[in-house]
Amino acid sequence: MAEVLTAIDLTKLHISNDATTDAAAARNEAAWAWYASIGSPKLFVAPLVGYSEPAFRVLCRTLGAQCCSTPMIDAAGYAASPRYRAEYAFSGGAADRPLTAQLGGSDPAALARAAALVAATGHCDAVELNMGCPQRCAKKTGSGAFLMEDPARAVACIKAMRAALDAHNAGRPAGAPKVACVVKIRCFDDVARTLALAAALERAGAEMLTVHGRTRHAGGGRRTAAQLANWDWIRAVKERAGIPVISNGNVRHAADVAACFEATGADGVMSGVGCLRRPHAVFTARAVSSRRDVAAMYCDAAAATSATPRQVHAHLVGKLALTSAAALRRAPDLRALLGALDTAHPWATTGTTPAALAKIFRDLPDDGGDDDRASDDEHGTPVDDGCGGWQKVWRDKRF
Ligand SMILES: Cc1cc2nc3c(=O)[nH]c(=O)nc-3n(C[C@H](O)[C@H](O)[C@H](O)COP(=O)(O)O)c2cc1C
């Protein structure tokens, strides 16, 4: 990692986050108090469209993750449509906290309305503005990473969300937890620009900042996505921020977690793609040695949280799946059962259930860690994460 990082001399940058004023000090103190109230989490699961549903979050928590995110929820859709809102059932209940609900959008009014509605469910501890999505759909609406190009609008979005959440918090029943306003950004090549944006978002009322240490362009395709996240950029933000900072990028193993804390000084570390396929390598609270066992644990969580067949299919089949290719080769019947899940139909039509799948995984022969070493086209080859723009190449031979 060290060779991809470039030294940044912060003393040459004249950027203020107004941390010296009384108002800023009180504001930041409140942010830290909220962070402490949710247990000062260190280990985070990234928001992942198509993947970070309740079952996966509960699985990661069982393995040691301390805070999770919903996938990005479209703020305008959530504000306008009860049917769309119903798609985001918080079926993990108390086992799925603390939880951040992530919103995508660039319209302050829609973001404020969606923030109020999702806070009112009583199922989340923070509402986050997505300022990291690099895809074409985000470009069209000036949202996600494209919102970083328009700091005035980004500030207006955070202010609107913060006002909605302040109103929610003021009216909540005694003893109900506060819902914080948080934000996830990428970085610019120009670190001064990133620091200025981070400071502006903090001043606007953001209470926690997750920094994905890649530029928008690094997330845009196979050719350029070979770039690793730059932890020096994240350290620069952490050194200037008055609120908790979470580092995101490059974390695939517990050793990466430790290295990331060391390199960035961040308050927490977030894993995305790494924890999709081998969450037990990132979160190590329980000794789980094989993906066979992780897949079975995921099926348990799917049963407990009423995951849909399609959600289970996403996690058990495919390039970023919990099931190794080696396991599928050993169990052709399992392959057929998993194939039948790729539908919008209910469990009754699939010929199986999450509980039955859990048993099949548990009955597979113990691979003794072979799955992690198997040459099943998983090592160092380009990974298509199934999400169009979110692609990267793992050069690290440990993956
Ligand atoms: C399939 C997929 C879906 C993603 N969905 C979201 C999302 O909904 N919101 C978001 O802020 N980032 C999203 N991301 C980005 C991740 O949250 C994370 O920032 C990125 O993968 C970098 O972390 P990593 O190096 O640990 O993978 C997604 C990434 C992937 C691979």
UniProtKB/TrEMBL annotation:
Record keyword Protein transport present: no
Originating organism: Aureococcus anophagefferens (Harmful bloom alga)
Protein name: tRNA dihydrouridine synthase
InterPro entries per record: Aldolase_TIM, DUS-like_FMN-bd
Species classification: Eukaryota, Sar, Stramenopiles, Ochrophyta, Pelagophyceae
Keywords: NAD, NADP
Region (Disordered): 367-389
CDD domains documented for this protein: DUS_like_FMN (cd02801)
Pfam family, one: Dus
Domain spans labelled DUS-like FMN-binding: 45-308
Stored PANTHER family: TRNA-DIHYDROURIDINE SYNTHASE, TRNA-DIHYDROURIDINE(16_17) SYNTHASE [NAD(P)(+)]-LIKE
Gene3D superfamilies membership: Aldolase class I (3.20.20.70)
SUPFAM superfamilies per the UniProt record, alphabetical: FMN-linked oxidoreductases (SSF51395)
